[in-house]
Amino acid sequence: MSGDEVTFGGAGTFAFMPRGVPHAWKSTGAETARVLFLHTPAKVGGLLEERHRTGRNFASMNECEVTEICQRYGWEIVRPPPL
Length: 83
Prior knowledge:
By secondary structure, the chain is an all-alpha fold. It has helices at 45-54, 63-72.
């Protein structure tokens, strides 16, 4: 989902999600998905790296912690999740 557009893809699908446009993705297949993200600016990827390094996900954080980590890496979470 990018903006108001919902698209579906299979194996090998490429998606461009422009900066400043709310977007989300969800794997709906029966098998485990593998995803490669390329972030620009690279600072944005730091959020994923920190979550991996600390072993914490958003579900284990309170609202203040989620807001703080997102601001640190230039992310904005638009709620509620669309998918």
